[in-house]
Amino acid sequence: MILNDVVSIVNKYNHTPDNKSILNFSLKLEDTKIFTLDGTNFSEEISILNDSVSCAEVEKSNLVILSEPSVNALEENELRKFKDTYREVVERAKSLNIEIVHIVTNNTWFMIFHDLISTYNVPVYLRNKDYSNLQGNLEGIEFHIVEDFFLLKDFHHYSNKITENLLIDLTSFQEVDNFYTQTINAVFDVVPSFENVTILLSDDSYLPDIDNEKVRVCYESDGVPVDSYTYVLLVTNTPYSYTSIYKTMYYAANSKVVFTNYNFKLNNMIPSVILNLSSHFNFVKPLSSYEAFDIINENRNTIMYKYSTINLLDKIYRGFFKDSLIAPLEINNTLDHYEDNLYLRKTNNSSSNLSIVEYKYDIEKTLAFPIIFLGEKSVKYKNSLLTLVNQSQSPYIIHHYNNEITKSTTNPKVSVIVPIHNNGKYLKFKCFRSLKTLSKFNEMEIIFVDDGSSDPETLRIIEDILSNNRVVFKRYEDGSGSASRPRNEGVHLASTDLITYLDPDNETIDDGHSVLLTEMLKDDSLDMVVGDIVREDNNKRNAIRYSKKVQRAINTDVIEDTKETLVKTNLTVQSIQGLIVKKNVITDNNIIMVEGAAGQDTLYFQELLLNCSKVKVVDHMIHSYYAYVEGSVTNTVSHKFFEKFYKVEQERIKFLIKEDLIEHYMKIKFNFYFKNWYMTKYEQVLEIDKMEAISYLRDIVKLYNQYRNMIDDEILMFVES
């Protein structure tokens, strides 16, 4: 992928990175000589690092990096010449026992070199998306799957200036029915919120004349002045394509707040990118300057510290030479909970002096960025300073913005309980950021309960949020293994009469929790209000419309016979993050979540419902549920996964018997749930864990042994085989 394939940019900068300055103080130049083929992305990448790293002769190198041509079209004779050169380099390197690798950048071109790679046993490094396309052609080849990587040559704009100007990139939007049934008309709804808007089109696209003085239309070949825009809305109807991912990485690296379609990889890679979870673009609005800077800084740091080609090269270098390619910048001072990374290391014998005066969870990376990637010698952020030893020049100033500290409301109406465990970036950039967008945020009491987080970044982020916002906080030193304990404790900590929940890796959307609160406050006879939610995974979006199901079952949006409704909806449940319930429903009936369990939300919802006298459902999306977040308990399958579900099943059967629902459950739920959840998850268990996993599944079936005649033979054979 090259820049011209991404977006055409006019090079007007607030700060122009000197490509020759990137890491020039920290590469192990005396040990590193890398040969690359001309005409590949990596020939330019290596030259950017430092001239002395790039080696023109195979014989003088200690590492050869091969790749496909960087262009998408070549004449037949040019391609033949390229392949001949490729063969000569491979043969020469092999004869001299020089380490050699091939990094995939173009799936189509890769197949042209497949025979040489296979014949000469060249190790191949490729991304997940490349593996998906090529896995049928990798037999007999040593391959390594790596993270997506950002090309350094595409980093060329560093700025902390905040404007209210928006670039709408439609170059990936195909004029067909799109992924979320969005229309071009919806794009124009965001225009009034911004001072100036540029719409970027691919050269073969067409847009009618727009009669709006703040909007201009340009094409890729025109070039866009990148320094004019703080915000980018990247619209695509192929949100899971690699082109969309790379474009987002490009804008994130180049100092932009990025709004784009939901993509599970982007959600896992860059939580600070704002993803569209609605059927409209109302979420695209200017942020406060402080929040915009926070996101710009996080986007840029994430890409350049974690996903650049330097990270990939270091991984390859370590594999061959058992040492890092990078000699990190040494610093003599850090905040608590600091962890070394590829580029920065805390040491007493440092090559730089770091003075930290104010708190910012990623302040070391923020201060070091202009030194590592821009060639500065001294950097200042507010009153904190990082300076290379023996440097006396004036520091580069990182412009900062003051945060308006949220004052406690004297009379909050609802308590939002957020259980936390080692997912700090999601907490900051998904959950808490979305809560602050609610129109009734100032009427909410936010309760963080940390269930033994051990991740240093999470601990820092919690402190960062607590220092600037009104949040009730409690921490357990040791984790319990599920969200139940912190949720139960949150109820005890709540000072309001109303309770709701939001997990740190989810978001409130469409002002949903404000809508629920409004409904509760309008009618004091309501015990609970329940809305709808959006479920996102790695393939598609599902709107889970509980309100529609209830209204179809009982022909009204108000539930007064909760048990009858539960039966008529076939025991359907809704996310407890999509409701607001009176606190006394929980406390008076001693409803608690099963601690140390998984899947406890469904049982908890049913208990809440049956202990309410009057419930209203609203046809409104309340929150997003990310079903494919890396590290989430429901995506990490071992025998412990089934152990946690066994705990909730022990309580579920008691509840079902008590409420005289057990036979109904066995008829309509048990078999379907067991086969489509437990048995499917079992297939994801590693062989080493399968014996223990099946023992828990066997124990779950035994719990329901009294109703064995209602259990499918397929399930019985599965657990007894």
From TrEMBL:
Pfam family, one: Glycos_transf_2
GO molecular function, one term: glycosyltransferase activity
Keyword Glycosyltransferase belongs to the record: yes
InterPro entries: Glyco_trans_2-like, Nucleotide-diphossugar_trans
UniProt keyword list: Glycosyltransferase, Transferase
Span of domain Glycosyltransferase 2-like: 415-549
Family in the record: Belongs to the glycosyltransferase 2 family.
Protein name as catalogued: Glycosyl transferase family 2
Organism (species): Jeotgalicoccus aerolatus
